[in-house]
Amino acid sequence: MAIRSSALTWTLAAVVVAAGVIPILIPSMATLVVLILAKGIVVLGIIILLQAGQVSFGHAMFFAAGAYTAGFWGKYLGVGDLAAYLVVGTVIATVLGLLVGLFVVRYREIFFGMLNLAFSMVLWSLLEKLFHLTNGADGMRVPRPTVFGMAFSPENFQYVLLYLTLAIAIVATFFVQRFLESPTGNMLRAIKSNETRLEYLGVSARRVLLIGYVISAALGGIGGVLVAVAQQIATPEFAYWTKSGEFVFIAILGGVGNAMGAFAGSAVFELVRFYASAQLANSWQLILGVVLIAIILFAPNGLIGLWQRQRAARDES
Amino acid sequence: MTATVLLEARGLAIRFGGVVAADGIDLDVLEGEKLAIIGPNGAGKTTFLNIATGYLKPQAGTVRFLGREITAHRPRDITRFGIARAFQIPQLFLDHTVIENLLIAAAGHSGRTTLMQSLHDLPERSDMENLLDLVSVRDVADRKAGELPEGKRKLVDIAVALALKPRLLLMDEPTSGVASSEKFAIMDILVAALAKQRVTSVFVEHDMDMVTRYADRVAVWSAGKIQMSGPPAEVLADPVVREQVIGI
User: Fold this and answer.
1) Alpha carbon of B111 to those of A77, A180, B127, B234: distances in Å?
2) pLDDT at residue B248, as a whole number
């Protein structure tokens, strides 16, 4: 269930302020916050599909589609504008989502997950092997773009990117939350609980899942553009299955019942990675593994579920 | 004046391996009637409902609804033509509340798949609340379907079917799994709701008290064939039916 909207508004406001203010106090955090928000946007798409009980182990393909839009643009068209990257990257991810979606929405559960994985690995090998087009495993550099026609210094650009990403994250969260409460969003959850009945209501479950799938692909593309621009590079790793797994991991970590879970999960994931990899170098994944086990055992509804449970307990007392 | 034929089945045949589930079923369902289907287990009663709703394709024969051939259509198309179905085991969205179950049905019926309007703000909401009143489950409107007792769930299942504004409702044992003390109450509610919405109904039933009290006509299924059909008093008095179906 959705959190009551007043609680959601206040939490959102607090998160927005934190995301906007912390990087001003600690400038080294700016890019990290962009990564948290951008990955959170991708994870919103994973959460949409999880409503229908479907786990995509290939969503990195849409993430890579967005990232490589920026990469190709830089290599073949010269330095572009961030707004153009975002629009074109989203369109390409959406079209790719529609094409792949038409095929994968016919399948459920493990078959759905594995088919997505297969498609993403095809894209990964193309990005690796078509060396003369994509620079192969080296990836494609993404030079710092202009923003709405204005060029910025590196110091200023990271803040422009941060606030633009924050604005997109807010709009995306609002959009996804509304979508999940809409008739179509409710039908997605109905696929999980009783697909047969849904068909007996005259509704095409495949069509409903396709709508969700295309929206989630578009979100993947947006996140991909933002991460590539923030890191100034797009590599085949962006399409690799471990990247898809990372998004699913973040979704489960944050909790799938609410759009806010995406950002809670993404923040914990990136912060753990940032600090654990500094301390433990090669074994930082161990920390993430322990965190995930703890979440599954003690908070099966994720961080957001934990928070909701506390609120409910407080309301009762 | 003759009543309109809503559903017209001709020569339906289907077998599953060695089991003959339909072997030349001819049946007309007339507008406004309440037709009960009785017969021993395995006679093909549910199979008939499955064929009429498009869940199974017969190996031979046709089904027409208001003159239109529906045999090869999918369940969701047949639903759109005006045939709704209630299930022996209620088929609800258990994670959704009762009113949400109905609103999803209403959205499916109207094709209102807007992406930005809340399900709860649909213009059909007051209609759906009235429907909950009609089947006496308004009190549980905001409870999750998964938390309801079986009797309530049966009624909600029927309300979901009625939300589709069907001409014909096919019900598989509407009172099975319900305490016998509740059965009459549930059927009273159900029959009144159907009359109010002018919905023709076909229901599979094992309880002869229900058939006698609520059906206008009875069709007796036996090994994939219709053995006999007619008014309940006449059919249930037939010695062969009494022996084979009722077991007296």
Assistant:
1) 44, 17, 16, 44
2) 57
Domain ranges of chain B: 5-246
pLDDT at A3 over 50: no
Could A182 and B118 be called an inter-chain contact, meaning their C-beta atoms sit closer than 8 Å? yes
The domain covering B5-246 belongs, at the CATH homologous superfamily level, to P-loop containing nucleotide triphosphate hydrolases (3.40.50.300)
Q: Are A183 and B94 an interchain contact pair (Cβ–Cβ within 8 Å)?
A: no
Residues of chain B contacting residue A198, judged by C-beta atoms under 8 Å apart = 104, 108
pLDDT digits (tens, 9 = 90+) for A152-165: 888 888 889 999 99
Q: How far does B171 lie from chain A, in Å, by closest CA?
A: 13
Q: Which residue has the higher pLDDT, A143 or A165?
A: A165
Are A43 and A250 in contact by the 8 Å Cβ rule? The answer is yes
> Over 70: is that where the pLDDT of A126 sits?
yes
Q: How deeply is B86 buried, as exposed, middle or buried, from its count of CB atoms within 10 A (0-12, 13-18, 19+)?
A: buried
Which residues 186-205 of chain A have a CB within 8 Å of chain B?
Answer: 186-187, 189-190, 192-194, 196-204
pLDDT at residue A7, as a whole number = 66
Contact B128, B99 (CB under 8 A): yes
Task: Give me the sign of the Cα torsion angle B18, B59, B65, B111.
Answer: positive
CB A58 within 8 A of CB A213: no
Within 10 angstroms of residue A7's Cβ, the number of other Cβ atoms is 14
Under the banding of pLDDT at 50, 70 and 90, the label for residue A35 is very high
Q: How confident is the model at residue A69 (pLDDT cuts 50, 70, 90)?
A: very high
Distance from the A271 Cα atom to the nearest Cα atom in chain B, whole angstroms: 33
